[in-house]
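tool=predict chain=A
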Amino acid sequence: MKTNNAPRWAPIALNALIASALCLLGGQAQSQQTPDGRRFKLIPLEEMTPAQRELAESIRSGPRANVAGSAATAGTTPGSPFSVFLRSPEVGEHLQRVGSYIRFKSSLGFKLNELAILITARYWNAQYEWFAHHRLALQAGLDPQIAQSIAQGQRPANMPRDEALIYDFCTELHQQKIVSDTTYQAALERFGEQGMMDLIAVNGYYTLVAMVLNVDRTPIPNGGPLPLAPLAPLFR
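tool=predict ok
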């Protein structure tokens, strides 16, 4: 009978070796995270594929080019969420076109559109989304106190009727996953069917953007503080 001379501890040693290798690989993957904490590094233009360069040009052109401090135009390469869009250029191209319409052509107008974005950012605790759009909302004429109440998870007091309609529609949609007949009918009478579609779209698109930013762990520029405190429950 043939004798197996392999040491009894060989399987244990092999398993330990595999475990060590996996830990090493895990450590290497972790070390690839960028110094500022984001998971998807910004891709320099010279490292982009032709499809990524084409998408980057689409993102950096058009109405976004006129927005000071936009992640689309700041620096030499697009920032988040666009830097993540670059990983799948075809998807990214469709998304940036939808985003461009929602930002600059929505029938809701800038102030109400930005209000919907802030509500979405607060619901998703999307720190960078809030940071970027809080400034834009105030520039569009939103009362700072309304933004502050939303940041605190409270229904703002004394909102103008249009803003109250937007608030009620968006919060019901995010919290209940439906919109009541009363809220829907009031919003429909004020904004029409195109307004309803544009309102659904801004909530949906910026939910996707919030997901991208949260998965990326997009940092606040220059190491700034997080603008939103954790809240539970949201929107009392």
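The two ends are 77 Å apart (CA to CA). Residues 97 and 224 are 30 Å apart (CA to CA).
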